[in-house]
Each structure stands twice: as C-alpha cells, then as structure tokens.
Amino acid sequence: MPRETLRFGHVSFEVASIASTRRFHDRFLGTLGFERFQEGDWYLGYRRGDSVVWFFRRGRRVQVRRERPRLPKTDEEVIPDHIGFSVGSWRAIGQWEDRLRRAGLPPFYPVDRGPPRTPGERYRSAAWVDPDRIVFEIYAVREPRRGRG
C-alpha cells in the first residue's frame, strides 16, 4: 500500500437540468457548507474546502451516458449513484436532518432516532434524493464496543 496521503477530491454527476439541480443543491449542499463556485448553461460546481461536487447536463459534452436511475427503495442495502457525507455521531445525523428540513428539504428516508434495530448495529444514515434521483446520504458509524474488563 502506498504511503502517500490520499484524500477525496471531487465527484461528478450527469443531470437533466442545471436549473433544477441548482435549486435543490443551493439548499442541500449549501446547508452542508458547500458554496456554488462555478456555473454555466451545461455545468455547475460546488465546493467545501478541497472537496468539489460537479453536475453536468445530460447530452452536453458528457462522454459516458448512463440510463436514468430509478427511484431507490428504502429496503435496499446499497444504492448506486449516491454520495455519502460522514459525520461524527448518530446524533449529528438528526441535527443535519433538522437543518435540511428547515431549508425545505425533508429526507427521502429519515434517520431512525430510536434504539438500534439490532443489538450490534453500527451504521445509521438519512438520505435525500435530488431531481435526477441521485441519493445524498449523511451517515455515521459507531466504533464497536470494547470488552468489559
């Protein structure tokens, strides 16, 4: 394994409409602290620090076409075409969910704020779906409990 530092740089998605993507993500990514920093009739870019999210209008200079994704189901374990934002605790997921609700964006599937669904559960999340059915997830993973000693 190489020793140099590797960090997330950018992610990009193909979308049907820059205008509807801007309306959704000015609120969603804006609430998460991203700023819209570039925009044209066929592209849109948001950044937070060194992390960038790009959107490109379908059919315009997009080299690889993909089928229109279907709306995800809440019983799926893994949803393609999504980006996950990691937070430090399960409580933080609920706090972000509340902030996004106040911005007019209720989640597609909300965080389960009750007790864990299984005794050893370590992963929880809440998710939002943008106009192109791309899922944006906020999640947290708990460390396993250490043995009692």
How is the topology of this model organized?
Blueprint: E1 10-15, H1 18-31, E2 35-39, E3 43-48, E4 51-57, E5 82-86, H2 90-102, E6 123-129, E7 135-141
CATH superfamily grouping: 2,3-Dihydroxybiphenyl 1,2-Dioxygenase, domain 1
Do you know the CATH architecture? Roll
How would you sum up the major sheet? Answer: 4 strands, mixed
Anisotropy-based shape: globular
CATH level 1 class label: Alpha Beta
Give the % helix: 10-25%
**In which order are the strands of the major sheet placed?**
1-4-3-2
Query: What is the end-to-end distance?
Result: 35 Å
- The CATH topology is what? 2,3-Dihydroxybiphenyl 1,2-Dioxygenase, domain 1
Q: What is the element string, with H for helices and E for strands?
A: EHEEEEHEE
DSSP strand count: 7
- Point out poorly predicted stretches: none
Structural class: alpha/beta
- Mean of the pLDDT scores? 81
Question: How many helical stretches?
Answer: 2
The portion of residues forming beta strands comes to 25-35%
Structural domain tally: 1
Rg value = 17 Å
